[in-house]
Structure formats: C-alpha cells, structure tokens
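Q: Sequence in, structure out?
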Amino acid sequence: MAGTRVPNLQSATRQQPLIQPLQRSSAVQGAVQMRIKSSQSSGDRLSQSKSMVLQESELPQKPISRHRRNQSQHNVIIAGAAVVEPLVELKGEHLNVAKISESGKKQRKSWTSMWTVLTSDQLLFYKDRQQETGMKPGGKTDVVHLCGAVIEWTTEKSSRKNVFQITTNTGTEYLLQVESNSTARKWYDAIRKAIDTSTKADGGFPLRRSNSTEYLPRHSSLPAYGSASPNTKQRNPVHRRSINMFSSSKLKYSTSDSADKNGVKNRLKKFIIRRPSMKTLQEKGLIKDRVFGCHLSTLCEREGTTVPNFVQICLDAVDKRGLEVDGIYRVSGNLATIQKLRFIVDQEEHLDLDHSQWEDIHVVTGALKMFFRELPEPLFPFRFFQPFVEAIKIKESKHKIEAVKKLIQELPKPNQDTMKLLFSHLYRLLAFSRKNLMSTQGIGIVFGPTLMWPELDAGNMAVNMVYQNQIVEFILIESQEILNLDRK
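A: Exactly. Output:
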C-alpha cells in the first residue's frame, strides 16, 4: 500500500506544484480534489468575471475608491446620465433684492441691498459681508432653492433697469437688480445655469416631495437592468421575467404620465386662447378696477381728473365736520368700518359720507390715510425722495423754499394737483389748532411716512423718518410760497 501511494503523491505534486509534499496524505488528497475542482470551473470563473463586468450596475454600489487610478469615477453619474460640468459659483457682491411674494401671497415691494452668494443649487442673501464670513453672528439669512425655479428679465415689476425675477418651485418671487448691465447679465447667466444644472440633476422633477414614496430618486439604477448579460438571463429566468414586467410597467407609466402632461398643456392653451378679454369682463361687471392700490396717474386717467374723486370727497367731509375735532388725523378710527368703506369704494358703489354709518369722522380720515399708504408709488414719487431730502438740508430758508418749489413743479400733474389740494386743506386745519390740538409738527409726524418713502430700504428707517416729517412740515409752513396758495 505504501508503495502505491508514493508515485501518486509524486504525480499529484507535479500536476499541482502549490501543494506542499510534507503534508499528510489525507490532506494532500483533499487539497488535490479541491484544486482539481477549482481548475475544472476555470471556464465558469472566466464567464462569471465577464458577467460581473457587464452586470456591475446590478451589484450594490460600493464606495468610490480613492486610489489614483479610480479618480475618473468621481465625474461619472450612475444610470447613464450625462456628465454634469461643475458650476462656477459667484460670491461676494451687493445686489438689490426685493421679495414680492411668498408661497404665492403677494408682499409689498421693498428693495434692500443684500450681500449675495451663489452656490450650485442655492442663492444666499446676507445683510452684510460680515454675516457670511461668520464675523458678525446673528441675523437671518434668506436661502433661495434654485431646483425647479424660473428666471426671467422683467420691466413691468419695477421702473429700475437691469431687473430680473426668480420664481421658486414653491411660488416665492424675488426681484434682483444692479446698476451695471454687465454685472446683471453675469448673475443672470450664472443663476440660470445653476437652475438648469440642479433641475437636471434632480431628475427633471421641479416639485420634489420629500417623505413620500412617490418621489423618484435623482439617479435611479433601474435602467441598468436592461443591460443584463445573456448568461444571467439564462441562469435566472424568473428574475428576467420580473425585470421585464417592471420595465414594461415603468414604460407604461412614463407614457401615460407624458400623455397626461401634454393633455393638461393643451387644455391650458385652449383656455388661454378662448378666455374673454379684460374689457369684456369689465363690461359684464365680473372685474372692476379698484381705487385702493391703483397707481395715481392710472386712477386719475380713468376718472378723467387730476385729483382722485375719493380724495376730494374725503377732504370735503373733513372740511365740513372735522376741522374742530380733537386729534383729527391723529386719532385712529374703527378698522372694521374703514375696511367696509374701502370695499364700497373699490366696488365703485355710490358713496355718501353724510350717511350715519360714516358719522365718525376718524373713519373718513383713516380711509384717506390708507389710500395714500397703499399707493404703489407714493404721492412723492420714488425718484424725488432723495432730491427732497437734499433740498430740506439747505440751511438758508430762501434757497430751501426755491429748491422745494422747483421739485414740486417737476412732479407729474396728478401728484402736483393732489398735493396742492391736500396741503391747502391741512393749512386750513391749522387755523383751528387750539380746538383740534394739531400743530405743524403733529401733522408732519402723521403725514410724513404716509406721503413719501424710499424705494430702497437701506436700513436708515429712523433717519428717513426724520426727513419725511421735516419735508411735510416745511411744505405746510411755507405752503403759501411753495404752492402759491391764496392768502386768507
């Protein structure tokens, strides 16, 4: 028996040089059998290796190797998507920003100079540079998510130049503006590129619904199933059938979803084409032009006057029964009644201020002040705010009067005539100051922020309020010289 084992051991040793001859015979035989079995399946191993190369997308995604030869993987997007070039970020510039709506609700436009930073998918607004660098903690940072947003140039939302609008996928709207045309175009192009890149990277779904099973991931690996090798399909026919069923259902879903979108678009187009004109709706009484919140020149043009009718009847009512009332224009009226009066005026119904429901004269004065506050552009237009401030700083009284008078003469006709009527009324009000306890300073405090405010809120609200009060008070004191009022 020993004589027969030695030649076999030597033969096995020659065929399998990796087996050490000093091992025991049983271990040698087991190792030989394992090696032979492994050798017999070498063809399968080769086919499996090839299959693994083709089936790489089926395997769980492994962490990207940091080895130098695998650095090319970092620039590849899985599932066959196009390679996205890195976005050039813009940092550190002051832009004028105004939020005009939030989640679809309109807001009063107020321009503010913000330190703006653009990242790959966000637009960040800081109050100043120190807040971005962290040297000045505190303060609220406004973050605008660009995925699914829309950017466009606009000339209707503001009288300024180089203004473009950003509308987020939640309905929030921002206006951005800068004086330099090249700077504005640079930011516009960069933001548009960021919007396109972030939206494409998100799979083309602008409205992402988090915490929902209906949300599709950015880079789905489902299309990779179609690239399975024939060997895999033959080995696992059940898996192949399930893949085909899933792919067909996904294809049907995509087709039906695309058809639904096209149907909605077609219906919207037909609705827009067939919708009645504004003139037709106004003739049927479905849409009425409002008085509150309408531009002064537009309202006067519609009414065929240079002074709004509502301002005229309110001033007549105060002249008739309010000149001697204590705290006239200073005391607030009932807000609910004021809103009722406003609704009647906007509906263009007949307004009789002598009616008993308007007996409280403070309701009339409150509605008049609300009318001036809700003008899209104040009685003192935006472009005249700074010139009036510079004029009121003049020390010599004569030159100050000439400067203010010249500015008022340059105002549009509706603004000029309305201002003249209002200040002549307030000048008559001062004749009863002993009874109504209203002085020029008190009237300036009430009407300063009501008749003028800057278009861009630069954070100097307290300083601006001082100038607003001084301008109204000075015009009121020198109204006979500035507005050429009759001396009585």
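The two ends are 146 Å apart (CA to CA).
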